[in-house]
Amino acid sequence: MDERKETLRVGSAVRRRRRQLELTLAVVAARSGLSVPFLSQVENERARPSTRSLERVADALNTTAVELLAAADPACTVDLVRAGDEVSLAGGTCETHVRDLVRGHHQLHAFEYVGDHDEGREFQHRNDELMYVIAGAVEVEAEGRAYRLGGGDTLFLTGGVRHRWRATAADARVLVVAVGDHIEAVDDGRH
């Protein structure tokens, strides 16, 4: 047996599936016969469901226990992302290099954008977001106002605020940190 094998965090998969179906914990509890406090503990990784309980949750979420386990995150408390771990995402008409700073499915999302950015794309997130300009300059439009940001500037956006941004300098590097599993772009682009 490999002692280095990581256990799976099935709670993250349960939460993602429940939110994807737009169900409350109370609805899942009623469907599964399990309590709301127990389901909350499962989603927050404070309780591990038995095989039977996981099957009941899966049935309530119109899926299977196997699918939930397959979608589960490894139980990793420390993850190092090296500077060279850059991913180039194709999208729009711009050339943007994006480095995902938090791997996996977590409540914290962080990306570093380098280069141009598609200014026509509008975003609206359910939860709060922070933009930090590492270098260069960007312009952000939010709530009918334009904000010009330079190196070292930050902009906080409350969840629900529609916004768009673009690089105004060739050497722009922007760090975007958002809270919550649901990061949705209005035009289905990745942000």
Description:
The chain is of the alpha+beta class and 191 residues long. The protein has two domains: 8-74, Orthogonal Bundle (434 Repressor (Amino-terminal Domain)); 87-179, Jelly Rolls (Sandwich). Helices cover 23% and strands 29% of the residues. The chain contains five helices and eleven strands. The protein has helices at 10-20, 25-32, 36-43, 51-60, 65-70, and strands at 8-9, 73-74, 87-89, 96-100, 108-115, 129-135, 137-142, 145-150, 154-157, 163-167, 173-179. The strands form three sheets. The chain has a six-stranded antiparallel β-sheet, with no helix packed on it. A hairpin with a 7-residue loop joins strand 4 (96-100) and strand 5 (108-115). Helix 2 (25-32) crosses helix 4 (51-60). The protein is elongated. The N and C termini lie far apart (40 Å). Mean pLDDT is 78; it is low at 1-6, 88-94 and 181-191.
What is the highest CATH level, the class of the largest domain?
Mainly Beta
- The computed structural class is alpha+beta
Number of domain units: 2
The pLDDT mean sits at 78
Q: Please, how many helices?
A: 5
Our estimate of the beta-strand percent is 25-35%
Shape by Cα distribution: elongated
CATH-derived topology of the largest domain: Jelly Rolls
Largest pleated sheet = 6 strands, antiparallel
Per CATH, the superfamily of the largest domain is Jelly Rolls
Radius of gyration, Cα only, in angstroms?
Answer: 19 Å
